[in-house]
Amino acid sequence: MKIAVIGTGRIGGTLGQRWHAAGHEVAYGSRADMVAAHGAALAGKVVVDAVNRIGEPVVNSHAAITAAAPRCRYVRAFNTLGWENFAEPPPGAAMFFAADPGARPAAEELIIAVGLEPVFAGDADASATVDALLPLWFALVRHNGGDRRVALRITR
Ligand SMILES: NC(=O)c1ccc[n+]([C@@H]2O[C@H](COP(=O)([O-])OP(=O)(O)OC[C@H]3O[C@@H](n4cnc5c(N)ncnc54)[C@H](OP(=O)(O)O)[C@@H]3O)[C@@H](O)[C@H]2O)c1
Description:
Elements: E1 2-6, H1 10-21, E2 25-29, H2 34-37, E3 46-49, H3 62-68, E4 73-76, H4 84-87, E5 94-99, H5 104-114, E6 117-120, H6 127-131, H7 133-142
Parallel strand pairs: 1-2, 3-4, 5-6
Antiparallel strand pairs: 4-5
The protein binds NADP nicotinamide-adenine-dinucleotide phosphate (NAP).
NADP nicotinamide-adenine-dinucleotide phosphate binds at residues 7-12, 30-31, 50-52, 54, 79, 82-83.
């Protein structure tokens, strides 16, 4: 895949490195009004939202992204675990995600490339369901000595 990562910090930098290592072509950007400026060009493209608007009532950017790029394929993922789990994924750790129809295969490939197990929670309307895991993860870290290398696993 050709991947543009917006953000060069812990999340953008770590995910970009992992996807590059898996053989994908990765370019980086930072502080660019990417979605607003390229809304039309994003038609049919997969847009992965990993940003958490901490402190706001809705922590994802689904509404803003689809307003600016109504024909993109939105994915909510990579926001419910700390970056340490992307750098060195615990064995079997799950990444819960939501995705527009048609974006699910790309989302699964990107999650697998990082070394996590993709777990589909529903279409983009299920973004809040994914986001509900965020306070759980923070609680697990807080009540386990601050160890951020903690993740959930699915058993079947
Ligand atoms: N850290 C985690 O474990 C984690 C896990 C899941 C999700 N997230 C979410 O991922 C996002 C990035 O977190 P991070 O830990 O990677 O942060 P970070 O290391 O501080 O990196 C932030 C990146 O965003 C850019 N940036 C900062 N303020 C901005 C603004 N006002 N407008 C546009 N770009 C801005 C920074 O640009 P400069 O380099 O120019 O400063 C940098 O590239 C946050 O929303 C966070 O909630 C983080």
